[in-house]
Design goal:
The complex is a heterodimer of chains A (247) and B (470). With 247 residues, chain A is α/β, with parallel strands linked by helices. Chain A has 13 helices and 8 strands. In chain A, strands 2-1-3-4 form a 4-stranded parallel sheet, sandwiched between helices. In chain A, strands 6-5-7-8 form a 4-stranded parallel sheet. Chain B has a 6-stranded parallel sheet with strand order 1-10-7-4-2-3, with helices on both faces. Chain B has a 4-stranded mixed sheet with strand order 8-5-6-9. Classes of the chains: A alpha/beta (247), B alpha/beta (470). Strand 2 of chain A pairs parallel with strand 11 of chain B. Chain A: It comes from Shewanella jiangmenensis.
């Protein structure tokens, strides 16, 4: 498939390794990847603060970067930004052109699980992974059944990773409790956010896993800052980085 | 206890200073969440019940006038006296008038967040009527001069040793006694005296059944029943949102209420009150107090589906780590923000939330709590009353993020600073982030910069964006 890469500002500016790994994974799977220039922020820091007027220009700039770009899918390695982009694009632009962009938006996990499923990996990976089930990915994008939900169980990240030979999968205690990042929440509510991050980082470390692995770079950045502050014996990795090692 | 006017973040920061207490508080509530998961999971039809519960409440709210009138008519047929109060002040006046007519000196009261919302206790006490809260948790906090810190377990913030101290002080239990069974026995003996000497009883209402003209009161201790069954005069206060059409609807909600609150299949007592005792009087006060105003807003209005199980408080990672007194409104936690944010003078409570969405999935009637909280933020922004300086810095963030030039040069400067400056120098400037966490390690360039250098052939440009800056 022809895929346009959507790298939210946090990934583009601060975690380019996640985007590089995403590109590598998609190309190894035989997809053609392009990168539309002019991408900015999805507007989430502003809309989550209630500031829709302040979000409009940013969001429209991002949306325009994808309008008319020839591709089969727009793939993003950041669940929370993808949800915000979908909602904000719709909020500010109800045109058919905008809808065409929105309909092509996929988060990386759902793309690799639902749209162009990866069934086999070439290389084994002898690592223990503690999965970070970030909130917006599971509760707004259906990447996994949240623990509050009593319907059928599913978990797309686990389904993907369990296809890699040698990988051992585990979960932190209170497996899908929020890590406390929450965008501006991390500074507005510094103490609670830090305590949530500390509890989550410790829970990941307590599993004895090599890596805490997730689909949301912002949560991983928060956990990473906490892990290094506390000197815990675990590191964070984005799902794309793990998949890249096994492809 | 007077609430201090301070932002949620400030109150939470104070609460978080005692980390072992935060851990204890968080765990006590998480245990309830785990019990809830087991109880809900034991019903294969749980998700169907939630859907049904949501539909029942939505249907009732959209026919509210009709059901309230049916309820009143059926109550009157049973000789129950029905009163209508547009706000808390009117509710309190009505209650006082009824109590005065019967020369009531002592009122025993149980299980009513509504009377907390109306500030009934200080009002009645100011008029010379003694009010005794008889639910054990409520009595503990009343003796401690505190409001509830949780809507179902109101004294959850107190350790048993602290209750022991309080009981020693107020009820004369031996010093140092903190055994829950002994403390409960002491409370029981103390409350028996109150029940026997009370002139009237008042309870809250879990559900008001329109087809029956009856109210349902759910408790575990039976103290509400002890109160309501002894004196001749009984009063029940309810919000207009407590109406359900019939017993079948009530049954659906009752199957979820206790399971979602504490993990019990049902509360020990689920009592249906449908008339005065011989020679007595039964009064129901129906209160609006802003509820019909909330219904004008389609999103806020869904908060009225709530059946007050407290499940959203137990699961909320922020509530568990900041405590019930950090919110600046009577009802704390997610549902408190949804229904009570206007009480918070600092306008900060809608930001006491990461929008993780756990509450909305826990909710037995599918109140979209995270969407309501998100919506409340937007309402504050539109009114120009944002907390934490957001009103001034968000427009700047908006301009920064919307400009590729600003974003790229700004972030390149940030990466350089992170890469070359000692972090000890940067931390003071990084505010709350650097206070609690290490700063991010800086990559050499942005991804787009990497692409330009290594894979320029992948770069394309939308025709829509061609005149954009670069």
């Amino acid at each position: 498939m022809k895929i346009a890469l959507f790298t939210p500002c946090l990934v583009n500016q601060m975690m380019p390794e996640v985007a590089v790994a995403t590109l590598s994974v998609l190309e190894k799977l035989g997809h053609q990847v392009i990168f539309p220039q002019g991408q900015t922020c999805c507007g989430q820091p502003m809309t989550n603060s209630g500031c829709f007027n302040e979000a409009k220009n940013t969001t429209m700039k991002l949306l325009n970067a994808f309008k008319g770009v020839e591709c089969d899918a727009i793939v993003c390695p950041a669940a929370s930004c993808l949800v915000a982009a979908k909602e904000n694009f719709h909020e500010f632009d109800k045109s058919a052109e905008a809808k065409a962009v929105i309909d092509k938006l996929f988060e990386l996990t759902e793309f690799l699980h639902d749209v162009a499923p990866v069934t086999a990996f070439r290389r084994p990976l002898n690592k223990k992974l503690s999965l970070q089930l970030s909130c917006h990915g599971i509760r707004m994008l259906d990447l996994a059944a949240p623990t509050e939900y009593m319907g059928p169980r599913y978990n797309k990240m686990e389904a993907l990773l369990s296809r890699i030979d040698g990988v051992e999968i585990c979960y932190p205690e209170r497996r899908d409790e929020c890590c406390g990042f929450g965008g501006t929440f991390s500074v507005d509510e510094g103490s609670v956010s830090a305590k949530m991050g500390k509890d989550k980082a410790q829970a990941h470390a307590d599993t004895g896993a090599d890596y805490a692995v997730g689909f949301d770079p912002s949560c991983l950045m928060h956990l990473d800052g906490t892990i290094r502050r506390k000197g815990l014996a675990i590191e964070t990795r984005h799902l794309a980085q793990i998949l890249d090692l096994a492809l | 206890m007077e609430r201090k006017v301070q932002t949620h973040a400030k109150a939470a920061e104070i609460f978080c200073r005692d980390e072992s207490r935060v851990d204890w508080h968080s765990k006590a509530l998480w245990v309830l969440r785990e019990k809830r998961d087991r109880a809900a999971g034991s019903l294969p039809e749980w998700e169907e019940l939630r859907a049904l519960g949501s539909q029942i409440k939505l249907h009732t709210l959209s026919h509210l006038g009709q059901y309230l009138e049916t309820f009143e008519a059926n109550c009157l047929k049973r000789g129950i006296q029905v009163h209508w109060a547009k706000d808390g002040a009117e509710h309190n006046r009505i209650a006082l008038e009824i109590l005065r007519r019967h020369q009531v000196k002592k009122l025993v009261k149980s299980k009513s967040m509504l009377t907390e919302e109306c500030h009934l206790n200080p009002f009645l006490e100011g008029h010379g009527i003694e009010v005794i809260d008889t639910d054990l948790g409520e009595r503990i906090i009343q003796l401690n001069h505190q409001p509830p810190s949780h809507i179902v377990v109101p004294a959850i913030h107190m350790k048993k040793e602290e209750v022991g101290e309080l009981f020693h002080d107020k009820l004369g239990t031996p010093k140092g006694q903190s055994d829950p069974t002994r403390l409960t026995r002491a409370a029981r003996a103390h409350l028996r005296e109150q029940f026997l000497s009370a002139d009237a009883a008042m309870t809250g209402v879990n559900m008001a059944v329109a087809s029956e003209g009856a109210v349902i009161v759910c408790t575990n201790e039976g103290n509400a029943d002890m109160g309501a069954n002894l004196p001749k005069l009984q009063l029940h206060s309810m919000g207009i949102d407590k109406i359900v059409p019939d017993m079948d609807s009530a049954a659906v909600l009752l199957r979820m209420l206790a399971r979602n609150a504490t993990g019990q299949p049902i509360t020990t007592y689920s009592s249906l009150y449908r008339g005065a005792k011989a020679g007595g009087e039964m009064h129901i006060i129906i209160v609006d107090n802003g509820r019909s105003e909330m219904m004008r807003d389609k999103i806020l209005g869904e908060a009225l589906k709530c059946i007050r199980c407290g499940g959203c408080l137990n699961t909320c990672p922020v509530y568990r780590r900041s405590g019930g007194y950090s919110y600046g409104h009577t009802i704390p936690g997610p549902i408190g923000i949804a229904v009570g944010a206007d009480e918070d003078e600092t306008h900060s409570s809608p930001w006491a939330c990461t929008l993780c969405g756990s509450c909305s999935f826990v909710c037995p009637t599918k109140v979209p709590l995270d969407k309501i909280i998100f919506h409340r933020r937007r309402l504050y922004a539109e009114r120009g009353s944002l907390p934490y300086g957001k009103g001034s810095y968000m427009p700047l963030v908006g301009r920064f993020m919307a400009s590729e030039t600003l974003l790229n040069t700004g972030m390149a400067a940030a990466r350089t600073a992170l890469a070359i400056l000692p972090h000890s120098l940067l931390k003071p400037m990084s505010g709350a982030w650097g206070k609690y966490r290490e700063l991010p390690t800086a990559p050499g360039s942005s991804f787009e910069g990497w692409l330009k250098k290594n894979r320029p052939e992948l770069l394309v440009k939308s025709t829509k964006n061609s005149k954009g800056e670069n």
